[in-house]
Design brief:
Layout lengths: L5 E5 L2 E4 L11 E3 L7 E2 H20 L9 H46 L15 H22 L2 H7 L9 H13 L1 H35 L10 H38 L4
Helix pairs in contact: 1-2, 2-3, 2-7, 3-6, 3-7, 6-7
Length: about 270
């Protein structure tokens, strides 16, 4: 939450409090103390899902050969994901099979990420580990499913015992392959998205809180150091634009890597 970080702690004037990880653990909004407790981030996630469903319904209502603006915008977005992530990576045949889950991953990640710069949300739905982890697990299941569906048990054998490696080296190679293929992939998918959203939020909170501190905490007290607020405001706007880019880029990277992992599972060498 981009709230003012200025408090009058003593007679010396306002005191600046830097943002902390407490930002990501807001209090309950509804149903406090029950299994259905709903905090601000959970509410954001539910709102994003509802908005995505509404946008898709409106964009696909009364579809025509000559599309109206909602249909054209939706077709552009879906076409971008289809052509640049799914088909480009998996090809036409396999791309059609995995189109729906990869599309879902991309648009859920994008919608959740972009709330980090949308007032009054101001925090990404992916800034807690739960949602990035769920999407990484879905990607992991798709990857395993694709490999088993095409290659059967040989998928695991060929993943852990790559061809062409001298038998004596398998004692080193196999643990490395197991960790890199079956553990690090979901872990890195999760942490890459999570850390980018956490860092982006803290950076924005720092810029806007510092702006509030300088302009409304120091300047009214006649402290001209408060003029530095002009610089922090500029940085705040710049980092807001940058965060929009990061939100879109991380959604693209997540969906693209999920598609790449599926493609690797389908590769003939397995």
């Amino acid at each position: 939450m981009l709230a003012p970080a200025v408090v009058a702690a003593d007679d010396d004037g306002p005191v600046f409090h830097a943002p902390s990880l407490d930002e990501f653990y807001p209090g309950a909004l509804l149903f406090e103390g029950t299994p259905f407790e709903l905090n601000r981030i959970m509410a954001i996630r539910l709102i994003v899902v509802a908005v995505l469903v509404i946008v898709l319904l409106l964009g696909t209502r009364r579809m025509s050969i000559v599309p109206r603006r909602p249909q054209a915008a939706l077709e552009f977005a879906l076409g971008f994901v289809r052509n640049n992530i799914v088909i480009e990576t998996l090809g036409e045949k396999d791309g059609r099979r995995f189109m729906a889950p990869l599309m879902t991953i991309f648009f859920v990640a994008l919608g959740m990420n972009i709330t980090g710069i949308v007032t009054p949300f101001n925090i990404a739905g992916t800034s807690l580990i739960g949602l990035p982890l769920v999407m990484a697990v879905v990607s992991y299941v798709l990857f395993i499913y694709a490999g088993i569906r095409k290659h059967g048990a040989r998928f695991f054998k060929n993943s852990l015992f790559p061809a062409g490696v001298p038998a004596g080296l398998y004692i080193i190679v196999t643990p490395i392959e197991f960790i890199s293929t079956f553990i690090l992939r979901p872990v890195t998918l999760t942490l890459r998205l999570l850390m980018n959203m956490v860092a982006g939020h803290l950076l924005l909170v720092l810029c806007w809180s510092a702006s509030w501190f300088f302009l409304f905490g120091l300047l009214p007290h006649g402290d001209f150091i408060g003029l530095l607020g002009a610089g922090t405001v500029a940085f705040g706007f710049a980092f807001t634009l940058f965060e929009i880019l990061v939100a879109a880029l991380q959604a693209y990277v997540f969906a693209f890597l999920a598609a790449v992992y599926i493609q690797l599972a389908l590769a003939d060498e397995h």
